[in-house]
Write a structure and sequence with these properties.
Radius of gyration: 35 Å
Number of strands: 9
CATH topology of the largest domain: Rossmann fold
Low-confidence stretches: 385-428, 516-525, 532-537
Structural class: alpha/beta
Mean pLDDT: 81
Shape: elongated
Strand order of the largest sheet: 2-3-4-1-5
CATH class of the largest domain: Alpha Beta
Helix content: 40-55%
Number of helices: 26
Oligomer: single chain
Number of domains: 4
């Protein structure tokens, strides 16, 4: 009968375990010096060697002639454990035996000595599945078992275990196995099994396994089932993935709003009967890598990629803002959940999501609005750097200077060139520059006097040519409320914090425009007007 490769190549000694040296070295030392604990807790993700190490430890403590703490795999005890012929090593699946009666059976059995081995070993897999009553029944036995009993608990979800159980065990955390170690191991297995495996294919299999040795070996067996040469295309065909290059093509098409390429790639994926969920997960992984490259200078530390691949990602990330990347990630995440709920419309979900990613105006989410604001800010602050430095142009462009600083008086020639301002109660010819972010001042005032802040919600703030602050209120009643008590002093403190300079009450002019149309002063309004390069006069 055929035996699966991951079972055939399961490690039999501590020397064969890959990527968990920090655990196997301790276990070997304890076995060699007869200093084993009464209870062990092995925790970690799937396929990292928890159950394998538990079985090796069970053999090691019962081995008649251990070699440097590892079982010899030749004595009668090792052979009996490997074949499952002994009743002294009991492996229990807590997922299907999670009741209190199962733990009571163990509690009643531990009082008896082993029938043929030195230790009676209980391996409880997926121990987090035990019920609360089962955990309570296990507590006392786990804390003080007989000298001939050894408990080994394994779990993939440590957070579900009661602290009383964890504190009674010697805990070992199994790490995800690194990609190079996985690739080397499956390359070795492929050679021994007569499978012709390319190195690029081995690396791809290792990345897909995400640190799990069992997944990597199972995928190797799937790809090499026909005993043909396993290359990168074979792996991608088996897992239903188009590869990293195809994902980068999708990202470039989104950045360039290349709709033809987007529809073509999705159509090819559907025509080849590939699972669009896998396609989507690969695309999300590429966006994650782009975010890492965009936000850190040590991307090579966090990405399992070659230098050439990281450089290619860096060039692509330079053309996209962080806000845009975050907005795209949210759209991709929502689309993945939608695909999982409705399998029949995966293609439609994929195409519509990619189209929304191409045009920010189609995305009304918070992340989408933040991405658009980021583009407005880039356009706003990039414009002055490209402006000519001729004296005449400098006078015309004075209104693009930061609004938080006092505005210098403009030359008469520049004043004459400006359009006539709309009629207000202010003196004719006065030029006012908006105080960007006056809404922040209102929020500061709201913390101390919420009623006064509500009357100023529709007010607008400007700087005149002399650097004084002009507050235009919507009605005389709001002006009356501001002048009462310490309202003006509170306003001056808020303005000082926003403008980052001291604003005295004498430098604040309060006005009520005649017939002027007022509108709310929002952050988005500020950015839109800033991007258009306009000032209110």
């Amino acid at each position: 009968m055929h035996q699966a490769l991951y079972r055939k190549w399961r490690p039999r000694t501590f020397d064969d375990v890959c990527g968990q040296e920090h655990i196997t070295s301790v276990l070997r030392y304890e076995v060699e010096h007869r200093a084993t604990s009464h209870a062990y807790l092995f925790c970690g993700s799937r396929g990292t060697g928890k159950t394998t190490c538990a079985k090796i430890l069970a053999k090691a403590v019962n081995c008649e002639s251990p070699v440097n703490g590892s079982p010899c795999c030749k004595c009668a005890a090792c052979l009996a454990i490997d074949s499952g012929a002994t009743t002294d090593v009991l492996e229990m699946d807590a997922a299907s035996n999670n009741g209190v009666e199962n733990i009571r059976d163990i509690r009643d059995e531990v009082v008896y000595s082993p029938s043929s081995l030195r230790y009676r070993v209980y391996i409880v897999d997926e121990v987090h599945m035990l019920s609360s009553s089962a955990f309570n029944a296990l507590l006392k036995t786990l804390e003080e078992p007989p000298a001939h009993v050894l408990f080994i608990l394994a779990t993939t979800e440590l957070h579900k275990l009661p602290a009383t159980i964890v504190s009674r065990c010697q805990r070992f955390d199994f790490h995800r196995i690194s990609t190079p170690v996985l690739a080397d191991r499956i390359a070795y297995i492929a050679r021994e099994e007569g499978i012709e495996l390319e190195r690029a294919a081995a690396d791809r299999i290792a990345r897909i396994a995400q640190g799990g040795m069992r997944d990597a070996i199972s995928l190797l067996e799937l790809c090499g089932g026909a005993r043909r040469r396993v290359d990168l295309a074979t792996v991608q065909e088996m897992v239903g993935s188009g590869g990293r290059e195809e994902m980068l093509r999708v990202v470039r098409a989104v950045v360039q709003s290349d709709y033809d390429t987007i529809f073509s790639i999705v159509a090819d994926a559907v025509a080849s009967a590939r699972d669009l969920s896998i396609f989507w997960q690969d695309l999300i992984a590429v966006y994650r890598d782009l975010l890492v490259v965009k936000t850190t200078d040590a991307a090579a530390r966090y990405l399992d990629l070659t230098d050439a691949e990281i450089e290619e990602l860096g060039a692509l990330a330079a053309s996209v803002g962080k806000g845009t990347l975050l907005a795209h990630c949210r759209l991709l995440e929502d689309a993945l959940f939608a695909m999982q709920r409705a399998n029949s419309v995966k293609r439609m979900v994929a195409e519509l999501t990619l189209l929304r990613m191409c045009d920010p105006r189609l995305d009304t989410s918070t992340e989408g609005l933040l991405a658009r604001i980021e583009q407005l800010e880039d356009a706003r602050f990039a414009a002055p750097a490209a402006a000519p430095t001729a004296p005449k142009k400098q006078a015309d462009g004075a209104k693009k200077e930061p609004e938080a600083l006092p505005v210098q008086p403009e030359s008469p020639r520049a004043e004459a060139a400006k359009p006539t301002p709309p009629a207000t109660s202010a003196p004719t010819g006065r030029v006012l520059h908006r105080v960007r972010g006056f809404i922040n001042c209102i929020e500061r005032m709201r913390r101390e006097n919420s009623m006064l802040a509500s009357f100023l919600a529709d007010a607008r703030a400007f700087l005149d040519e002399g650097g004084r602050v002009v507050i235009q209120l919507p009605n005389p009643f709001a002006q009356m409320m501001l002048e009462q008590g310490d309202g003006r002093a509170l306003l001056c403190r808020a303005l000082s914090a926003e403008l980052q300079r001291e604003v005295l009450p004498a430098a604040v002019l309060v006005e009520v425009p005649d017939g002027a149309t007022q509108k709310n002063d929002t952050v988005l309004d500020d950015l839109l007007e800033a991007a258009n390069g306009t000032d209110t006069q």
